[in-house]
Amino acid sequence: CSEGAPIEPAAAPEPPALDAAAPAPAPRALAPEDVTSRLRQVAAGLSSPLGVTGAGDGRRWLYVVEQEGRIRIFREGKLRDTPFLDVSDRTEGGGEQGLLGLAFHPDYETNRRFFVNYTDLNGDTVIAEYRRARRNPARALRGSERVLLRVDQPFSNHNGGALAFGPDGMLYIALGDGGSAGDPQNNGQRKDTLLGKILRIDVSSRATEYEIPDDNPFTGDPTARGEIWDYGLRNPWRMSFDRDTGALWIADVGQGEWEEVNREPAGSGGLNYGWRVKEGRDCYPAGEECEIVGGALEDMTDPLAVYSHDEGCSVTGGFVYRGRAFAELTGNYFFGDFCSGRIWAVAAGGPDRQRPVELLDTDLSISSFGEDDRGELYVTDLAGGGLYRLRPAS
């Protein structure tokens, strides 16, 4: 890594968790003089990792998504050899395809249900439910797959892939605009397609694949798909909910000039994030007037933060830090760039326009951030196969 941005080698397992009853430190905005963070490697030998999460079941295991179609368990400081789930025969990992997303049901501890997002052998998106074994929590049941949704993908790129349960118990799904360049089918702005959207569905009942919540913003519009929560996105690569406020954070990969980070207040669906009319805060294509069809420029939501392609080329969304270990990190949203390896932060409770504070300049191919059950943050390195924990240098 670059000088001043150290990465520690893998070491002994983490110390015991802090007392769960202890109060969380008060949020404080990060200032440039606080930028003394580092990454500590906790696991190596992963194959193209691009996701990591806890399950919320009290075991404090981490589940790492490998692009080729496997989910691995990291527990007690070791990476388990036997996959939790292997669907490598149902997908082909590479480029922007493969096993792309994982989310555990809020009641996973009792109902054993979890959800994945992958591209099938035809390159189309599949959202599917699985269950873990009743008597072996380290093994999922391959035969339990229940496909909830399939979405045709016209091109191989811009598949999105993130899954997340909101504080409302609904499943949110991030889908890219279908690929190619410049959104040739205008999927981002069309509401008759699921591409270029954040979807919100109800998976509480197993009697049907899913239900469309009555309070979704376009359920009464006969020209729109009811599953749509937000639209106007190019390739949302990772989204997350703030544990404290319920705000939705969406990182959207740019086309040629700008990468962007969006903050959406809890319950504020129906927002238009502008693509392909805008890239970042500017009209697209650059240097031309915004071409509006069936809407208004002022109805589009600008990102909270942007950075140019002088600093990176593909944003990787992260999380608002709500852990208990490090007061100086609390209340800040952390994100990075896949190409440059940089990691930045913005104040989660700050103004609608912010300049990101750079924390680290690494050599990693940052493919995802993740959160364990205690709210501590992790980073995956696609090219190097490592799993890292973010922590202050002190």
**What spatial form do the alpha-carbon principal axes imply?**
globular
Low-confidence spans: 1-6, 11-28
Give the total of beta strands: 28
Instruction: Report the average pLDDT across residues.
Output: 91
- Tally of separate helices: 1
Could you characterize what this model shows?
This protein has 1 helix and 28 strands. Strands 1-2-28-27-26 form a 5-stranded mixed sheet, with no helix packed on it. The longest helix is centred in the N-terminal third of the chain and has 4 residues, at 108-111. It has one helix spanning 108-111; strands spanning 7-8, 37-43, 49-54, 62-66, 70-75, 78-79, 85-86, 99-104, 113-119, 125-132, 140-151, 163-165, 171-175, 197-201, 228-231, 236-241, 248-252, 258-264, 278-279, 282-283, 305-308, 315-320, 332-337, 342-347, 357-361, 366-371, 377-381, 386-392. β4 (62-66) and β5 (70-75) form a beta hairpin. The chain has 394 residues and is an all-beta fold. The radius of gyration is 20 Å and the shape is globular.
Could you give a short description of this structure?
By secondary structure, the protein is mainly beta. It has one helix at 108-111, and strands at residues 7-8, 37-43, 49-54, 62-66, 70-75, 78-79, 85-86, 99-104, 113-119, 125-132, 140-151, 163-165, 171-175, 197-201, 228-231, 236-241, 248-252, 258-264, 278-279, 282-283, 305-308, 315-320, 332-337, 342-347, 357-361, 366-371, 377-381, 386-392. The two termini are 18 Å apart.
